[in-house]
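## Example record

The block below lists the input lines for one assembly entry, exactly as stored, with component labels intact.
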Amino acid sequence: MSNLKVHVLRLTPGQEVVGELEKYVSAQVPRGAFIMTCCGSVTSATLRLAADTNGVTNKIVKLSGHFEVLSLSGTISREGTHLHISLGDHQGAALGGHVMGDLTVFTTMEVVLGEALDVTLGRAFDNRTGYDELTITKDEREAAGTIN
Amino acid sequence: MSNLKVHVLRLTPGQEVVGELEKYVSAQVPRGAFIMTCCGSVTSATLRLAADTNGVTNKIVKLSGHFEVLSLSGTISREGTHLHISLGDHQGAALGGHVMGDLTVFTTMEVVLGEALDVTLGRAFDNRTGYDELTITKDEREAAGTIN
Amino acid sequence: MSNLKVHVLRLTPGQEVVGELEKYVSAQVPRGAFIMTCCGSVTSATLRLAADTNGVTNKIVKLSGHFEVLSLSGTISREGTHLHISLGDHQGAALGGHVMGDLTVFTTMEVVLGEALDVTLGRAFDNRTGYDELTITKDEREAAGTIN
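Predicted C-alpha cells for the full assembly:
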C-alpha cells in the first residue's frame, strides 16, 4: 500500500535552507521527512567534513562564495536534522560533507520532501557513535492499513 | 494521503538524457516531475558552473569523455527543466553543475521520476534572479481528497 | 494513482551497506527497490571508476579511511544491484563511482528505499553494453488499478 506523501517547495534568494526546511517540517510534517530531490544555488555553507585518518577529528569549514547544490540527502524531524550536501564550485569541482547550517539561497532552491505516512522519525542518543541517531517508529494504526 | 506516482525508466546507449526525459514528461507526466534517483554513465555533458566570486559570470563547459553519473537532482515540466548533476571521472574525482544538455548515455541510465499528483509544476520569470523559476500550483480538486 | 511504498532504514556501525540492503530487498521488497535518500558515513569503499579515455578500462579502487556519504543512487533487486555513490573526504573533496562493495558503516547510514508497486525490477544481459542492465516489467494486475 502506498505510504508516501510528497511536499514540493521553492525557497527564494536570501532564505536559509536548513532553518526553512526545519520550520516547514515542524509545522507541516510532524512525522518527519526526508529529502527526495534538491536543486539550487547557495552563497554560503558551513560543513563538517569527514573524520580525519584517526577517525577522531572532524574539521568544520565555513564556505563563502557561489556554489551549485548538486545533491542534498538525509532526514529532518522535530527531534533533529541530518543532512549531507554536495556542492559544485565555479570551476566545477565538487565538495561536500555534513551540513551544519548557513545554506543561504543565491537564486533558488527547489526541494521535494517525502513523508512516510506509517512511520515517525525521531532521534535518540546512540552511545556507539556519540550522536543522536535516527529512530524509526512504526505507527501501528497506520500499519494496520488505515493510512489516509 | 499518498500523492506520489513514480515512473521507472532505462535509457540506452547513445540516447540524450535531458531530451528523452523532457519528451517522456511532456507526453506522460503533464503535471511535471522530479528526479528521485539516477544511475548510469555518459560520454558527454554541457554544464553551467556556479557563478564566479562576483556572482555574475557562470562558465559553461563542454565535457567529453567517460563519466559515471553520481547524482541527478531537480525538476522537469512542460514549462522548463532545472537539473544539477554530479559526475565521477576516470580518476574518481567528482565534478558538477547545472545541466545545459548533451548528456549522452554511454552504457545505461536508470532514472526514477516522481509525479506529485496534487500539484502542477511550472516556470515563471522571477526578476529577483533573472531566470524562469519553479512554480507549484495546488490542484484544488486533488487537494480536496479525490486523488486517484 | 499512487504507486510508491517507502522503506526507512538505519544501519549501524560496522554493517556493510550493500549486503544489508540486498538482504533487506530480497526479503522485504521482492519487486526491487531504488534509493531515495542516503546519509551517513563509511570507513571503506570499493569503487569502479568511469572508463578511461578510450572507454575500455575501468580502474577499481579500494578506499580506506573516513568518508561522508554525500549521495547514493540506483536500484537493487534480487537479480542485481546498480549503485553509484559520492563521498566527501576529510578535506571536503568529493569523489565517486560505481559501488563494488565494502561500504562499511562508520557511525550511521540512513537509507530510504522506494518500491514501485506496479513494476518488477530485474536484470538482463545487454549485448550493447556487456552488462546485465535494468529491466522494468509492468504488473498487469496492478496496472489495471488494483494496487493496494
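Chain B touches chain A through 46 residues (CB under 8 Å). DSSP finds two helices and seven strands in chain B.
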